[in-house]
User: What shape does this take?
Amino acid sequence: MINIKENEKLSILNHSCAHLLAQAVKHLYPHAMFWVGPVIEEGFYYDIDLGDNVITEEDLEKIEKEMKKISKDGKRIVRHEISKEEALEQFKDDPYKVDLISRMDEADTVISCYTQGDFTDLCRGPHVETVKELKYFKLLKSSGAYWKGDAKNKMLQRIYGICFFNEEDLNEHLNMLEEAKQRDHRKIGKELDIFMSHDLVGKGMPLWLPNGAIIRKQLENYIYEKEQKMGYKHVYTPCVGTVDLYKTSGHWDHYQENMFPSMKVDDEEFVLRPMNCPHHMLIYGNELHSYRDLPIRIGEFAADFRYEASGAVKGLERVRCMCQNDAHLFVRPDQIGEEFKKVVSLILDVYKDFGLKDYKFRLSLRDPEDKEKYFDDDEMWNEAEAKLREVLNDLGVEFFEAVGEAAFYGPKLDVEVKPAVGPEVTLSTCQLDFLLPRRFELSYIDSDGSKKTPVVLHRAIFGTFDRFTAFILEETKGILPLWLAPTQINIVPVNNEYHLEYSKEIEELLRKEGFRVEMDARDEKLSYRMRESQTRKIPLTLIVGDKERDEKTISYRIFGTTETVTLSQSDFIAFVKDEIEKKR
Ligand code: TSB
Ligand code: ZN
Assistant: This one.
């Protein structure tokens, strides 16, 4: 998706279009007063005081029409400069402009205005030469927005739009927005009853419905099995910790702005944890360890809470209460490379199972010149960074290096995955940490009997179940593979009078096999029920009629096809098991 703000020419064009919007609004709503109209990544918006008017879809069309009219008229956009005093005089009836002008720097007294025809607005500019250039635009939506983002202030109307230099670019962009809308996991999540939100629970705190819970459970089982095979030990720990725990870990000093405020209970002060690493450090420290025991791999499906800005939370993709597919791997320095390799191989393995192909590995390294930002141990850094690079090269993984992007405590690898539409998302991560084990005074006894500090690898393969589920829903448009689908098989008897009994027989048979089965024996037309099975994106729909009942067979249709295949009961069961096993 194009970032309008980062493209200078498009940015000027869009900013000019915001003025065109304001002019059109002024024509249609003479009382309108204007706050700010900035360019954003997605185009532009303008915050407008329209009294009690709330802008509807129809209003947007009317405004757009007016904008087209003004554009055709083709007035020049003229810049002129006035002093602060003059500006205050000129805009004295407009409290919003007065507010803006009053806050302008005394030293910076030259204030620029832009006039096009009958409309003048305060603006730093620059703008295009004439309104004629503003031809290929679209108003996208409107919403309420409090003045200065403060709920105590008046609610303004925010109108969003976008502008391009030619029709093709505009159409391409609008098509992409439409595609994104269709794929939006919030829409799919609602249609397929996967998750919900409620103001009484809070922003960024989704509730997983039964269908969502099935998907999540499948993901948990899937990754748990893999981690078991790799020697991970899973634990359960509380989703709070004391402030002292987070002072020990350093999060209190360095991560507090991302945390919920603390709460006092008796003589203890707790925080909802933003990360569960400290808990795992304590579990490691609960026992003595010899160099022979390492690596020790502590895994958890861990609920963490982060204070994400309310404007940033989005469905399951960015939440305030998340569940990480987390693990902390405690290794000797000589094991860093090998263990890191196992993590990267696991990521590749998982991505293959999910058919993810378009992703980039980003290796974040320290800036060796920056002695302030990075934990001071040159040898450790140099060795570790070289190891990570070597592993990625060995595995033949394409990656890019981001110097100066490492965390204070060590280098890290993130995987940025490109979705079908929209910007890249970070799913998996693996972060080396030299510091946390020291802060918790963790140790192991080395082969020479001396006490050594282990190195920690923080890693999450799915990232969070929340974000991964959002991603998978958008990639598949909700058409999940058999092993993940909440309902795998929908049985549709052709006629309840004649086919219900045999339908129930197969329902029981398939349930016993552990398949997730439903039956739609509602008093509705067959075609209606078949269609509904498609709407609900159920992978297999069974049609039970005379032939199936008499021959004791199963006829099925795969989602999205119209071909019916008939198999014996045992062959059908074998087919389903195979599909599930292969994760197709
Ligand atoms: C991997 N302590 C480490 C852990 O051991 C950690 O918390 N790393 S993290 O901060 O990078 O988070 C891990 C993953 O969680 C990220 O890669 C990202 O995929 C996911 N994630 C982060 N914030 C959110 C959020 N607000 N909503 C959903 N998922 C998130
Ligand atoms: Zn961690």
